[in-house]
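Dear support,

I submitted the protein below through the web form. The confirmation email said the job was done, but the results page showed an empty box. After a refresh the structure appeared. I'm attaching both so you can tell me whether what I see now is the final result or a partial one.
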Amino acid sequence: MAGFARRSPMNRKNAVDVLIYSALILYGLMILYPFYNTLLVSLVSEKEYLTTPFMLYPKKPTLLSYRYVFSSSDILNGYITTLIVVLFGVSYNMFLTATSAYALSKEFPGKKIVMVLIVFTMYFGGGLIPYYLLIRNLGLIDSYGAMI
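What the results page shows now:
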């Protein structure tokens, strides 16, 4: 009987597999739809969005919102601020991380306590209000230093 290949048990799809695939596809669509909706909202007028907030495709697409954003000088200021924060923030963070890692690779009294304190602060932050009070007391409000 050449030409008839037996299907192995691993290649068969049963009802549970179909149910799992269906659930995963539905879950994936639920995750992706907000991104798609954001793109759609950027392509329609405010009036059209307010009349049909749940849409699958834009009826009258327009690029007015993109023209507005790119014609504004605020976008350039935002990119400059982002560039400054990224360049200085990443450099500063890498320096502190590398020097801390080097110091913690050596044996010294209290090393385990320092490691526990570092890991603890990674998992549990102090909160927004103490952070704001710290930034205010350091005089960093409305400055790049607060973001870096």
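Response: this is the final, complete result; the empty box was a page-load delay. The chain has a mean pLDDT of 88.
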